[in-house]
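Same chain as my last thread, 398 residues:
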Amino acid sequence: MAKVFEIQDYYCAMKFKFLKIDLESATTYNCHAARPHDVDFEWLAKNPNNLFNTDINVAERQMMLENKRNSSCEQNCWPAEEQGVLSHRQQQFGFNRTHTKVNNLPETIDLTIGADCNLTCSYCCKEYSSAWRRDIITNGNYTIADDNGRFQATNKDRILLNISQSELKHSSRYKQLMKEIELAAPTLKRLIITGGEPLLDNFLVSTLTNLKMSDQSVIEMYTGLGMSNSRVEHVINQIKHIANLTIIVSAETVGKYAEFNRYGIKWQDFLHKVEILKKHKIKIKFQATITNLTVFGFAEFYKLFNNDLVEIVQVQQPPMMSVHIIDNDSKQYLKNDLETLPLIISQPILHSLQATPTDIQRTNIRNFLIQFTERRKDLNLNIFPKTFLQWLEIDHVV
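reply #2:
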């Protein structure tokens, strides 16, 4: 792909303060948008309380201080910035130089507690949803060019799908990683709990109880609310008294768009679960994941929840779901819609919409939509604008 913009500064503050830990896959990310690194458990046993300062993390920080491009950011930020699309680094003001030392204590830990999830959100994948993993294993691989294995089942996927929560939690590697988190907990500014679906984790309460965090530490827990009403009530009753807890609801669109992109939950049922959270007076906010599929209906969603805090994050992976992979007529319609929202919300999306899709991106999203809906007979592509479907050359729509 030809470069549109030349990157001048390769520094990102996230590398110096953020650590994502995936307990199931035993991998870490030195930024939520970076490529993962496998944990070297033998090294970790000799260097306890240093999961944040592994050799690769220290080396990548040093490269950034020297304004050198490192490979783990090639998955999201560098390609996005070269296209003129807002990257995660830019959205989070990571270019502001906050650190000069390569060895640090993490300020934020993002803990992926497990992959158990009942939803197959359109932008998600087998790593973060057991339902996605089951789809690919049961129905076969998707045919998407250059998907880097995202839609391909492996032997590891088959093994993980059959491991119970109890087996995972009692494994030696899981315990070793949890020990690292417990050691880091007292000095953390923020703990993020993600999944999968954390509210489906039977060990959630005990995990939180074992982390001796500062009274000033913030805990943020993400949920797609893809479970029964009784499950929501039960878990919220157990955790609602935790200090400084915010529930972040993953949602960004309404009605049929919501049911398509958050497949596995009905819109009215979702609204009822949000009311359950509010009934318990738990602090909530929404994170809207903006893609070329979820941007339809986003303006209406934002207006519906304008009394609550709504934050946006734009997807760069998979590349076919970047928000600008849309036809020009749909872009104009969306522009008119988005301009009715506050500038702090609309401008980042409008900026990204200006980029030009490639032919391979258009072909890939076309193939994805056809295969995604073929496996879910209650979905209908007619919910999307006709010009979008014509641009994708999708003639036959169920």
